[in-house]
Write a structure and sequence with these properties.
The protein is mainly β. Helix content is 0%, strand content 55%. It has no helices and eleven strands. The strands form three sheets. It has a four-stranded antiparallel β-sheet, with no helix packed on it. Strands 5-6-7-8 form a four-stranded antiparallel β-sheet, with no helix packed on it. A three-stranded antiparallel β-sheet has the order 9-10-11, with no helix packed on it. Strand 5 and strand 6 form a beta hairpin.
């Protein structure tokens, strides 16, 4: 048993990366943290509350902003949407976000495709 500490508020979501080599945690402190699950070491702190894994990237959402990061924490895309994002999911190069207006926003992010 180990405990990973770093968030300043409730942790609201956790998920292993598709390869299982990273663990992400989203929090009400408006951060998504990436951890090495074998050592418990924090690898990166990203801006956002919600997140999803996209191929070799991670997408985060907070307010009206969606960010896409490389797994080393480098920001590669920043998108603004009309209404606050309440949930986000990814499949390949597609990102879909649910918003507070009851609408869904679908994005095709071709740069996320693996070569």
């Amino acid at each position: 048993k180990s405990t990973l500490r770093g968030h300043g508020h409730w942790v609201t979501s956790v998920s292993f990366s598709p390869a299982g080599d990273l663990l992400a945690s989203g929090s009400r402190d408006k951060t998504v943290r990436l951890w090495d699950p074998s050592t418990g070491a924090e690898k990166s702190t990203l801006r956002g509350r919600n997140f999803c894994w996209c191929e070799q990237h991670i997408a985060t959402a907070d307010g009206k902003e969606i960010r896409v990061y490389q797994l080393d924490g480098v920001l590669v895309a920043f998108l603004c949407v009309q209404d606050p994002v309440t949930s986000i999911t990814c499949s390949g190069a597609r990102i879909s976000a649910g918003t507070s207006s009851g609408e869904m926003v679908h994005l095709q992010a071709d740069f996320l495709k693996c070569s």
